[in-house]
Each structure stands twice: as C-alpha cells, then as structure tokens.
C-alpha cells in the first residue's frame, strides 16, 4: 500500500509547523524522517495517523484521502507507534496487545482463535511473552515500548508509522526492531534521531528542517557531511559500513562547537 503526503501543511496559532510537505512512501518501502528537535517530524506523522488534521494538503493511501475514511477504516490499514500510544490505565500486557485488534472487531466481539494466535506471535516477536500477565504501568520504558510494538503488529496494518520507536530500547531491541521493519514488507514511515540506524534501516531518507523538506533520497545521497553540518550543526566524518555498504557517521567531539548554537 502506498502512502503519499501531498502538500501537507500544519499551521497552529498563526505559526507554520509543517509547510507544504510532499513525500511518497512506496509499497514495502521504509522511509526515515530525520531532522533536529522541533523540525516538524512528529507533526507530520500525526497527520498520517490522524491525530491532527492538516491545515492544507492531504494524506493519501493508495490515492484515497484518509480524511474521507472512517477512523476504523484507516486504522485497519495504518498502525502508529508513537509517544501518544502510551496508556495511563493499568491493563495487563496481554490485554494491551489484544487492543490492537479493536479496528477489526464489532462491538464486544471476542477474539477468534486466529486472533489469539496472532497476539501470541506478536508478543513472541516483541520479546514480551514473559510479561503477559504484568500490568503495563509497572514495566520499564523499553518493555512498555515493546508492548506497543506488539499491539501495532496485531493490528495487521499495511502501513506502519513510528515516531522515535527506538526510544528507551536497549541496543539489542533497537537492532531487532529495525531488522524486523526491514523484513516485514510493510510500508513504513519512521522518525528517527539515530542517523546511523536510519542509514542502516531505511531505503530512503527525508530530512526536515524548520517544517520543510530539505533533502530526500538514498541514505548515501542524503547523509553528507555538508548536510549534517547545515541541518544539525554537527561535524562528522562519513565512513562506509564494511559489510552493508551503508554510510555511517563518526562524530567528532573535539570539533570546535563554541558559538555554533543559535
Ligand atoms: N500543538 C502545538 N501547538 C503549538 N506548537 C506546537 C504544537 N505541537 C508542536 N508544536 C511546535 O511545532 C514544532 C515542531 O514540533 P514537532 O514535535 O513536530 O517536532 P519534532 O521534529 O518531532 O521534534 P523532536 O525531535 O523534538 O521530537 C515545535 O516548535 C513545537 O514546539
């Protein structure tokens, strides 16, 4: 399923948070959304998972404007893993995961055998089977994040939108999550702060600065020392990963950053 942001703009209180964003994510493609704090990544993603209505432009799923769909209908295609996905209610892990089936159920319909199996598989994939009966509020940040990953998977989406999904995850679970995204075949739009993980995981990158796209393309085309300096204000040396061939950034903490902060 193809996702398109067509001139998406968000204006709040006279301030443009995202301006005229055009971005395609082709079927089965992983596009990484990068940019400094406050550049508009979450705002753009919120338009895709419909937490926010664009002031102008549209989000299209296979050419159809999501604004014209019932929330349940778009939720059957798009799953989101965001900072807003966290629940304040102390459901058990198994209950939260099962909630991912909600868009597919009618009323109080019980889960089928297949759906129970789906939940079990998602919990296995997210490495949370041992936590099934624990209350989510007592979990660590990374454990909770993995519960939300399982919940998104049982939704059986075709498009996955993730806002900083590696937040709180230890390095093994970061790598596992991004490897899973690569093998999932899903259409993925993911905001990431870790540029090296983004370069390893994503087919294409889109860089936001001040609410506008400043670069899109393959990781090798986008991640240049000049762009990193201009957009993030950081000096890097670029190397090529010896096995995957992905560009990787080495940060130089001894560079002179005095006076570079605006
Ligand atoms: N509801 C809102 N009302 C007013 N301003 C907002 C609102 N939501 C976000 N902003 C502002 O819009 C800008 C973009 O925010 P956004 O959260 O999209 O950035 P981001 O790229 O996701 O940042 P980060 O990397 O810090 O998560 C920021 O300056 C933020 O303060």
UniProtKB/TrEMBL annotation:
One of its GO terms (molecular function) is ATP binding. It comes from the Bacteria. It comes from Saccharopolyspora elongata. Keywords: ATP-binding, Nucleotide-binding, Transport. This is ABC transporter ATP-binding protein. PANTHER family: ABC TRANSPORTER ATP-BINDING PROTEIN, HEMIN IMPORT ATP-BINDING PROTEIN HMUV. The keyword DNA-binding does not apply. Residues 3-235 form the ABC transporter domain. The keyword Transport applies. Coiled coil: none annotated.
């Amino acid at each position: 399923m193809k996702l398109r942001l067509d001139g998406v703009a968000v204006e709040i209180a006279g301030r443009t948070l995202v301006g005229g964003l055009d971005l395609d994510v082709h079927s089965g493609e992983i596009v990484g959304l990068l940019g400094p704090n406050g550049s508009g990544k979450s705002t753009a993603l919120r338009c895709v998972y419909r937490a926010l209505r664009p002031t102008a432009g549209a989000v299209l799923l296979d050419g159809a404007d999501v604004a014209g769909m019932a929330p349940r209908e778009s939720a059957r295609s798009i799953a989101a893993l965001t900072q807003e996905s966290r629940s304040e209610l102390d459901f058990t892990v198994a209950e939260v995961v099962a909630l991912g089936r909600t868009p597919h159920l009618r009323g109080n319909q019980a889960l089928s055998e297949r759906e129970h199996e789906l939940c079990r598989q998602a919990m296995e994939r997210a490495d949370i089977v041992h936590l099934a009966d624990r209350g989510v509020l007592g979990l660590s940040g990374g454990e909770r994040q993995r519960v939300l990953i399982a919940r998104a998977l049982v939704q059986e989406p075709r498009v996955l939108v993730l806002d900083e999904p590696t937040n709180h995850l230890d390095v093994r679970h970061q790598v596992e999550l991004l490897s899973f995204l690569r093998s999932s075949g899903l259409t993925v739009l993911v905001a990431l702060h870790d540029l090296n993980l983004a370069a390893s995981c994503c087919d294409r990158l889109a860089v936001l600065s001040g609410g506008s796209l400043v670069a899109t393309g393959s990781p090798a085309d986008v991640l240049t020392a000049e762009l990193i300096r201009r957009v993030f204000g950081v000096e890097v040396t670029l190397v090529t990963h010896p096995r995957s061939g992905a560009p990787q950034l080495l940060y130089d903490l001894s560079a002179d950053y005095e006076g570079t902060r605006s």
